[in-house]
Amino acid sequence: MKTFLIASALALASLAAPASADIRTKPVQFKAGTSSATIKGTLKGDQTIDYTLRARAGQTMSVSFSPSNDAAYFNVLPPGSTGEAIFIGSTSGNEWTGTLPADGEYKLRTYLMRSAARRNESASYTLTVAIDAGAHASAPASVRAAHGERAGQGRFDASGQILCARHKGQPMGQCGFAVARDAGGSATIKITHADGRARLIYFEKGKAIGADLSQADGDMSFKATKEADLFKIQAGQERYEIPEAAVFGG
Fold first, then answer.
1. Cα separation of 174 and 194, whole Å?
2. Strands 158-165 and 72-77: what pairing?
């Protein structure tokens, strides 16, 4: 299993089920004295099932997903998400372990990729989720608040301008950005385009690890390179050039 503090939305060119799909919600229930649960379920067509559970920042969540159809996946959505995921199974596999960034309700979203949904395919699956106490679960909220959570609350450390482009082949222009930072090169950068549309880019330990590319975005590919002190990001068709100083400060 891969471990991420915030495993963000990395993705494949294949398209996931649309955000307007039939979404059902089911709570995850742990038996008394246990910290894990195994769920069996089925999906058909554009059905989406969100399994919900509450957890605390600093806890570690582990999820394993075993579907009968290779086009079935799960995503992990943090508290307050409107579709943005901190883990996307279609590119990162059927297992995930991560340290949770915020207190609140998490969703384990199960779905069929859009191409399979359009063919009205079905999948049966077994979903296993476990949560441990976490080394920082008892820390004060002001200490536990991670950069992703603070960015979602509009609590930023700095702002400025970066180079950006919305569409393939479009010349680079200027976009405003705001950044919420944690120590060691971990940060969430919110980039706002001229039309008001925003994009979140996530960094952990000095590396760009993903963006808030939701299932409705279409092209969910993500690529990051670094040249000298400049991060070059491609998120779907969008392109960004982010100076290292925006992530680390200074």
1. 8
2. unpaired
